[in-house]
Design a protein that fits this description.
- There is one protein chain.
- The chain has 428 residues and is of the alpha+beta class.
- It folds into 3 domains: 31-75; 83-208 and 354-427, 2-Layer Sandwich (Nucleotidyltransferase, domain 5); 220-326, no CATH class.
- It is 38% helix and 19% strand.
- It is built from 11 helices and 17 strands.
- It has helices at residues 28-74, 170-176, 181-197, 210-218, 228-240, 269-273, 282-290, 318-336, 341-351, 361-374, 410-422, and strands at residues 78-79, 95-97, 100-102, 115-123, 134-141, 146-152, 157-160, 164-167, 203-208, 222-227, 275-280, 305-306, 309-310, 355-357, 378-384, 393-397, 403-407.
- Strand 7 and strand 8 (164-167) form a beta hairpin.
- Helix 2 crosses helix 3 (181-197) and helix 4 packs antiparallel against helix 9 (341-351).
- The longest helix is centred in the first third of the chain and has 47 residues, at 28-74.
- The protein starts with 27 loop residues before the first helix and ends in a 6-residue tail after the last helix.
- The relative contact order is 0.14.
Length: 428
Amino acid sequence: MDNNKGMRRTPKRGYRDNFVDVKSSNNAAKNKKGAKKSKKMSKKKIIIRNTVVIVLSIVLLISGIGMIYMDQVLNTIKYVSPKTTTSSGSTSGTTPIGGAGVRGNSGNLLQSDDILNLMFFGSDSGDENGRSDSEILFSIDTVHKKIKMTSFMRDTYVEIPGYGNNKINAAYALGGTNGGGPSGAADLAIQTVESNFGIKVDAYAIVDFKSFRNIIDVLGGVDLQLTESEINYINWQSFYNNQVSTRHELKDIFDPEVTSNNSDSDYTKEQQTKTVTVHLNGRQALWYSRDRGLSGYDDNGNVMIHKGIACPTVSGNDFDRVTRQKKLLSSVMSRFKTANLTQILDITKQVGPLVTTDLTKDGITSLIYNSLTYLNYSYNEFRIPEGDLGAGWSYGTASDGGSVVQINDWDKTRKDLATFIFEDLLNK
C-alpha cells in the first residue's frame, strides 16, 4: 500500500510545482484577493498583538504601583513579635495559621486551622499602662463562612495568671507595666482569656479608638437607630469637649428646635424608647460607642457646667455601652460590604499608625485581599458573661471594694463560647 497516497509531494529545488491543491481555487484573481486578504489579516493580528502587549504593560505597571502602595500602607502599622511566656502553660511562637504570626499549641486550648481568632484591644489613651476599654475576640470562620464577635465585659471577674483575681481589663494594664510594652500588655491579656475560657487566640491587634473615627469618615459615615437619650449624650460630649460650638448639633427627636438642656427625666417612658435613624460622622459615632450614661457630676461631685450650661443626666451603664459598640461595629461591617479594595487600602493607610499587632505583614496582606470575601460572611455576636442578671451572672465585690461582674456557671460559659466559635467542628 502506498503510504504517500493522497499526500502532497514537496517539489525538488529548481523544479516547478504543477500540483494544484484541491482546497484552493484555480481562479488566479481569487488567489490574488486571498493574498491581499491574508496581508490585511496579518496587519490586523499585529495590531491586536500590540494592543494586548500595551494593555498588559499598563496592567503590570499599575500592579507594580499597587504593590508599592500596598507596601507603604502596611509599613504604617506597628509590628511586634509574639512574646514568649511560661505562665499558665501558654507559649508563643510564629507558626503560620492563615498567614498570621500566631502562638503555638497551648496545652488543652481549643483551636482550628480553619478559624482565625483575632483579639482586639480598644483604648482611648493608646497607653498600654492603662486598662483596655474594649476587648473583643473576632473569629473568622472559613468553614461556616461567618464572622463571629465575642465581647468581654471589662468588669468580668477572672483569674489573671501570676496576679490573682481581678477585672479582666486589668490584665492589659498589668502586662504593660515594668517595661512590658504593648506586646506585654496584650500577651498577659490573651493569657487571661485563654486560661479562663479555654480558647486559643491566634493573634491580636491594639487599636486606638481614634482610628474608628477615621474609618467611619472614609466610609462616608454610618446610619444608626438612636434614642433621644443617645442623641443628648452625643450632643453634650461634642459640645463639652469643644468639638462643636452648638449644644444641639443633632436635632431633638420631639422638638427639632429645642434649645433647653433636657435630661432623661424630662421625657416620658414612651419617648425615651422611641428611635429614629440618624446619620453619624466618625466623631459622633465614636461618642456613641463610649456612651454609658452621664451622671451630670464630675469626679469631685460637682455639677458639670460648660459655657454656662449644666450637664444633663443620661441613663446608661457598661452593658449598654457594649451593646452600642456591637451595633456600631455591625453597621461599619455593613458599610464595608459596599467598599472597594481602594477604600479598604485607604482605611488601612489612615488607621495603620494607630494599630499595633503581632500579625505579620504577609498575614495582614492576606486579610486585606480576602476582606471582600470575608465581608460577605454572616455576622454573629456573643457576650461574656452571657445571659441576664441573676441567671448567667451577678454583681459582686472585689477585694479592693470595687464592683465586679461574676460569672455564675463557668463550665456552661466555656462550653457555650466554644460552641459559638467552633460549632460542629468540636465533634470532628
